[in-house]
Description:
- Two copies of one chain form a homodimer.
- Chain A is an alpha/beta fold.
- Chain A has 14 helices and 15 strands.
- In chain A, the strands form four sheets. In chain A, strands 2-10-9-8-7-3-4 form a seven-stranded mixed β-sheet, with helices on both faces.
- In chain A, α6 packs parallel to α7, α8 (154-164) runs parallel beside α9 and α12 (287-312) packs parallel to α14 (377-396).
Amino acid sequence: MSYTFSRALAGMTGTATRDIFKLLSRPEIISFAGGLPASDCLPVAQVGEITAEIFADKKEALRILQYGTTEGYPGFRELLGPLLKEVGIAGMGLDQLLVVSGGGQGIDLMCKAFLDDGDAVLVEDPTFLGFLETVRAYNGKSIGVRADSDGIDLNDLETKIKQHKPRMLYAIPDFSNPTGKTWPADRRKAVAELAAKYGFMVIEDDPYCRLRFSGTPVPSIKSFDTDGRVVYISSFSKTVSPGLRCAFAAGSSEVIRKLAIGKQGADLHSANLSQAIVKRYLEKQYFYPNIEKSLPIYRLRKTAMIDAIRKYMPSEFKYTNPDGGLFIWGEFDAPVNTVEIFKEAIEKNAAYINGTAFFADCSGSNTLRLNYSNESPERIEAGIKALGEVFKGHIARGG
Amino acid sequence: MSYTFSRALAGMTGTATRDIFKLLSRPEIISFAGGLPASDCLPVAQVGEITAEIFADKKEALRILQYGTTEGYPGFRELLGPLLKEVGIAGMGLDQLLVVSGGGQGIDLMCKAFLDDGDAVLVEDPTFLGFLETVRAYNGKSIGVRADSDGIDLNDLETKIKQHKPRMLYAIPDFSNPTGKTWPADRRKAVAELAAKYGFMVIEDDPYCRLRFSGTPVPSIKSFDTDGRVVYISSFSKTVSPGLRCAFAAGSSEVIRKLAIGKQGADLHSANLSQAIVKRYLEKQYFYPNIEKSLPIYRLRKTAMIDAIRKYMPSEFKYTNPDGGLFIWGEFDAPVNTVEIFKEAIEKNAAYINGTAFFADCSGSNTLRLNYSNESPERIEAGIKALGEVFKGHIARGG
């Protein structure tokens, strides 16, 4: 039996993320490959308490078990205002908000709504590999834009805009996946202005902004959007629970309505129970205190990883030192192929993810992403030590 | 601000389903427009008990709140075998099963995996409007195949296959939405054979098979599939709870793997808590007893609607009398435009859904779908009485 798959999916035979999750299931592996929030920070007791309350209220339980509406569980979107205000987005009406089943669904719906075959999409190079795959699934074309230590390079961005006439720009301006970089406010403002000037959409993907353990918050790109060009997507996956698949998109009412139509064909509505849980979690004021409790854990783990990198990794390894989020990005100033060396690392029970999957053109074979959020400081040190030996040995043997 | 949406979504400005849900929120309306399972049958107490058990087990709760795997919550797919055997599908391995966020997601992923621009898809005329919309969203082309009282017409099917060289056929062979018709076994077998002969895929959408209150079960199309051409999709929306968004697809491992890749870009994985609830619901043997308790309610409501139709609807109204599922389909042998009359019906506080949205070519302006599952026999009689007056008056005035 041989199948003729669609052009969109024919070439996709598996993904890096998929392989990551398989690796994570082996307990002996110290994994820096994933992107999981710290399991220690997941609010098991609070969510347990909330579900008990929900099912004690028969009327609410009934509403949860029956079909819901595509836009969101009743009363949930009303609570998103304060979260948006925090990143500089004020006055969003309910018709400008859509609940989605994880930030990834928000991205997918944006591609569904705006991409036709062969359309160009600009991304900061490197960027979230899941986005690059989604663009492929819509037969779009991702074009990488150069970046420096402060994120996207505005000159290269404008050059690429003129050259490729993109339909969209995708950005994670806070603690980017995979680099951990944060864009300063002036670049965000400039991007919003360029979107208005040249008439393209911006997907601002912001799952990590509340995981800031140092430095000062920066307003969102959306906060500078005067033209309805930016759709801001944020998720509760890193602040409450990823397993609930609960996130939201904020944009102009016209775009949000189109995303809702797309969502109706995708999953009709997000799981009501997940939404009802997050709603009560916000109402009961569990949201900020739990983040406050989590931040020292994330800071400790990041610091442990930076310390271990300094101690064990070869001097040819250059790396970012983020103020928040989940990831450190590394690059070798040496002929090191992180794709090939991965197998050797796994044999030493340490996993990273090679950087090529994060580049629009699959370059970056000397790069890697390290996740520090879901391992203890001790295991972080042991894992980086193992990686250091692997890479040092490799460089000593001449690459 | 004007947006250039993708060709796929540009023409979609709202949907019938969307409007249905808005109508349902007005309590004075007796609605036969929706497709909701009976709220009385939703297992509120059992799901409450199950969530309490889940959160009493800290390890399981932690696993639920963390990211899950795309294929499904651990241990859940293992329980689907008996449900599949019931419809004649034996020996499915775990790699042939994928959990999806509602049957609609299964349909969407099949289109994503198999449809390119302009590809033809065959459907029994009339068919589920959500499928027609999904095909549009992939720039595919739905072609209606004639049907008689036993479902799809095999001669017209083979003619249309030769004429349109379809990539897929979509079917709801048990208590079809919208008609309530059930295909006999020989047609199912013939469809599986035609799929193998002409090399197209079959989406067998089977959300209703367990809502059979009379007659004898018929084996699935998939049970006759020797060639890996049929993907069987079933949902817990009508047997446990639609709000959980929990369903599954069964097919060859190669196709299921492709659907999983598509799902990874759609929502990464279905909400863990929803899956864990249905898993325990099956383990605790709540599934069949709750259906047994529900069937008399569905039977009673259907009978109430048939009785009321006989009593109040004009003699020009021809209708199906299903053995299960949620819907009765009606057709006027008279110049009655159900699209135009809808407003008048709503003024009388009774809602149906006009049939045009269920036809591939938007014909059927003399048809309508009636849902009986979520209203009491008393309200069913009152609603059909109101509709009968509206339609009789219309016919008396000469259409």
